[in-house]
Amino acid sequence: MCYSMSVGKTTLLAALLALVPPNERIVIVEDSRELAPNHPHVVRIEGRPANTELAGAISLTDLVRQSLRMRPDRLVVGEVRGAEICDLLTAMNTGHEGGCGTVHANSPTDVPARLEALASLGGLPRAALHAQLASALDAVIHVTRNAAGVRRVAEISIFARDGTAELVHTERAVAFHVDGRTVLGPGSPQLERLLDR
Asked: If we measure between CA atoms, which residue out of 155, 127, 126, 163 comes closest to residue 139?
């Protein structure tokens, strides 16, 4: 998912996670506990900052790696803000499908560039990141908030490969306008295939 600030990402993500079948284990990795999905099989693990002596820190990167030992059916990173994107994508490409996370970006088209910046913190080169994105992620849900404070899903986009460059970009699948109109985009057939899986 991609968001601007304070648009209800936690609420939307919790609502989506509540739809996960009850026999599936959800492991949630967060800096601080925010996500509280209505689901019977949730394991939460939280990061910890360093103490005053700069010792004892537990990073999200460490937690994502350790969470794989918990046999998650769904691995969720509450908010991707750094090098943990590398481990999350690796996990999603090694049999832990159905994971998700949130990231701050101005629009769905900005998500690949934002993920490039975060992956560089973990030492993942651009080409490797795009190869991981192409096989790990399916869609972006963009949530916005207007000047009146109304929060809404504005767009769903899908990830697609650029032809010869082997880079990943997003294509609009459906846009939800303020006036209630729904407009399909070029990514809508792929979104339909994803929903039929």
From this structure: 155
